[in-house]
Amino acid sequence: MNTDLDTRNTKVMNRFDITSRLIAKLKHEEAVIGGIGNTNFDLWAAGHRPQNFYMLGSMGLAFPIALGVALAQPERRVFALEGDGSLLMQLGALSTIAALKPKNLIMIVMDNGIYQITGAQPTPAAGVADVVAIAAGSGLANSAWAADEEDFERLVDEAMSASEPSLIAVSIDDKPGVGTTRRDPVQIRERFMHGLGVREPL
Question: Is the confidence at residue 152, as pLDDT, over 90?
Answer without folding.
Answer: yes
